[in-house]
């Protein structure tokens, strides 16, 4: 059964609020609960990081095959124009940026589970 909008008790976590509500109102039928969070932004960050990691791995293998020339790419749209940069450094920087977002999303999801805003 999916239940939404259980009255919040100030100072208690969402889990504690749901637990006390159902134990009080449906004590004979209540067994347990599982809180569900919207983690779409977190999942997108995970997928984006994986794509960037694949591109980084590809460029590192490319460098291993041809150690004399470092792989480059352009920073513009689809790599068609813009400033030319080292691909390995570029993807390492992009992965660091995504990791920061990844950590923020994870923190937000976990914080919502402990406290209700």
UniProtKB/TrEMBL annotation:
Pfam families: PHM7_cyt. Residues 1-102 form the CSC1/OSCA1-like cytosolic domain. InterPro entries: Csc1-like (IPR045122), CSC1/OSCA1-like_cyt (IPR027815). GO terms for molecular function: calcium-activated cation channel activity. GO terms for cellular component: plasma membrane. This is CSC1/OSCA1-like cytosolic domain-containing protein. It comes from Ambrosia artemisiifolia (Common ragweed). The lineage of its organism: Eukaryota, Viridiplantae, Streptophyta, Embryophyta, Tracheophyta.
């Amino acid at each position: 059964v999916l239940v939404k909008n259980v009255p919040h008790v100030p100072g208690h976590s969402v889990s504690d609020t749901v637990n006390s509500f159902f134990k009080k109102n449906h004590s004979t039928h209540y067994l347990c609960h599982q809180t569900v969070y919207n983690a779409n932004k977190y999942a997108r960050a995970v997928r984006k990081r994986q794509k960037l990691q694949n591109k980084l791995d590809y460029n590192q293998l490319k460098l291993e095959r041809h150690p004399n020339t470092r792989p480059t790419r352009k920073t513009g749209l689809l790599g068609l124009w813009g400033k030319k940069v080292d691909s390995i450094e570029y993807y390492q920087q992009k992965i660091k940026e995504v990791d920061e977002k990844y950590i923020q999303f994870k923190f937000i999801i976990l914080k919502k589970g402990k406290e209700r805003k």
